[in-house]
UniProtKB/TrEMBL annotation:
Coiled-coil ranges from the UniProt annotation: none
Signal peptide: none
Molecular function GO labels: dihydrolipoyl dehydrogenase (NADH) activity; flavin adenine dinucleotide binding
Protein's name in the database: NAD(P)/FAD-dependent oxidoreductase
Species, as recorded: Microbispora cellulosiformans
Domain Pyridine nucleotide-disulphide oxidoreductase dimerisation: 357-462
Cofactor, free-text remark: Binds 1 FAD per subunit.
S-S bridge residues: 42-47
Binding site for NAD(+): 179-186, 269
Lineage: superkingdom: Bacteria
Positions of the FAD/NAD(P)-binding domain: 5-320
Length: 471
């Protein structure tokens, strides 16, 4: 017989857990289905372990810029990997399971699949099958998976993705990285900083980080090159060979050159994990992102019972945005279950429209929110751009002789508000939330003039940007 709950959540990553916790706290009976570890990609194979690997490299760079400070020898990679294991709870999700239990959320371990309206069939970890039925809502929160490009021999060579590189048991002597995006840049820097003798990046395009302002990618490329990373632009792999499992990898390039390495990391993008979700059973395409409206309800599904949050809807593949969408969806579900109004401002997605905030944890860090200059112009805004050298801010002097950075603000001249802001500098991540508030809330430049930054901090760059604008 079907087991009946008010809400079924498929996927126990950060977004799924937020939905489950919030609807259960509101008194709705809730079940969450997870086929791997409760806590999801971010907790075990992405955000958390990658930052644990990057933090020592970041700190080493910071120390090197301060006169009188020095590192005695290389970073202890063994200790860093051990700390990574602590950060990911040694890949044990019992703590997450206990939290779900305390939140009165039923955890079902297995693979969930839609079989019709409000119905989910679970192939359980013990080989059985459970049928779940929802009174009010089913929420898809299955995340995304790494894309392996169709390069001859690549899949057979068992390349690393974000999962294998963040879970590495040792630092490879030589590493080839395919890609020039966030994972590629972060992990190239981490592995080089932790002891890889050779790191080679194969980048199909003409620069790194092509989704942010061009100066950001150039700054990161300069930093990686100075650290010894070999960046090959407009280059790609034509064939990959690994004759022996676990042996050396040979990569043949389109120009005929070859590279050998202990490991090859593929970081060429991600796709929503929807291929085996049974979407066709409810009239949706069987693969690809699940389209949603601004309340996170799946479009094209009658009666509005299906929701999709996080990477699975393809809107912004970022953990914090998935959790934001989850808060919206859960509050809408609760309101509708109670027969209450579901149209409060907090119940509609606004952040995805203006541009999600993102930090790329390289050294220098790249921090951006809103539209780039190119995006703003393409959308027809009356744009004015102001930039400032962050190394000229008083707070920057205190961070060392080699402190460099740049800030860029994209202004809507008609409304005199910020459309986008980018900071590229060591340790700039903590500046981003102020920019996120300004962009999302549409704070005018005249009002920002009265938000006085403290001295001497790098946040004084806000004052300098406004002065460059002419206030």
């Amino acid at each position: 017989m079907p087991e009946v709950f008010d809400v079924i959540v498929v996927g126990a990553g950060p977004a799924g857990e937020v939905v489950a916790g919030r609807v259960a706290a509101a008194g709705l009976s809730t079940v969450i289905v997870e086929r791997e570890l409760a806590g999801g990609e971010c907790s075990y194979w992405a955000c958390m372990p990658s930052k644990a690997l990057l933090r020592p490299v970041d700190l080493a760079g910071e120390v090197s810029r301060v006169p009188g400070m020095r590192l005695d020898g290389p970073i202890d990679a063994v200790a860093v990997l051990a700390h990574r294991d602590t950060v990911v709870s040694n890949y044990d999700d019992s703590g997450q399971a206990r939290w779900l239990d305390s939140a009165k959320v039923t955890l079902v371990r297995g693979t969930g699949r839609l079989t019709g309206a409000r119905s989910v069939e679970v192939a359980t970890a013990d080989g059985g099958t459970r049928t779940l039925t929802a009174n009010h809502a089913v929420v898809l929160a299955t995340g995304s998976g790494a894309v392996i490009p169709p390069v001859a021999g690549l899949a057979a060579a068992r390349p690393w993705t974000n999962r294998e590189v963040t879970a590495a048991r040792a630092v490879p002597d030589r590493l080839v990285v395919i890609g020039g995006g966030v994972v590629a840049c972060e992990m190239a820097q981490a592995m080089r900083g932790l002891g890889s003798r050779e790191v080679t990046m194969l980048v199909r395009g003409g620069g790194l980080l092509d989704r942010v302002e061009p100066f950001a990618g150039k700054a990161v490329a300069r930093s990686l090159t100075e650290q010894g990373v070999d960046i090959r632009l407009r280059e790609s792999a034509e064939k990959v060979e690994r004759p022996e499992p676990g042996g050396v990898v040979t990569v043949r390039l389109k120009d005929g050159d070859t590279i050998t390495a202990e490991e090859i990391l593929v970081a060429t993008g991600r796709s929503p994990a929807t291929g085996d979700l049974g979407l066709e059973s409810v009239g949706l395409p069987e693969s690809g992102p699940v389209g949603v409206d601004d309340s996170m309800r799946a479009t094209g599904v009658a009666d509005g019972w299906l929701y999709a949050v996080g990477d699975v809807n393809g809107q912004a593949l970022l953990t914090h945005m998935g959790k934001y969408q989850a808060r919206i969806a859960s509050d809408v579900i609760v309101a509708r279950a109670r027969g209450e109004a579901d149209d409060r401002p907090s119940m509609r997605d606004r952040a995805d429209r203006v541009g999600a905030p993102q930090v790329i944890f390289t050294d220098p860090q790249v921090c951006a929110v809103g539209r780039t200059e190119a995006q703003a112009r393409a959308e027809g805004f009356d744009v004015r751009v102001v930039e400032y050298d962050m190394g000229q801010v008083a707070g920057g002097y205190l961070l060392g002789d080699g402190y460099e950075g740049r800030a860029k603000a994209v202004v809507d001249e008609r409304r005199r508000v910020l459309l986008g802001v980018t900071f590229v500098a060591p340790g700039a991540a903590e500046l981003l939330h102020a920019a996120t508030i300004a962009v999302t809330a549409g704070v005018t430049l005249d009002d920002l003039w009265h938000a006085v930054p403290s001295y001497p901090t790098v946040s004084e760059v806000w004052l300098r940007l406004l002065e460059e604008y002419g206030l």
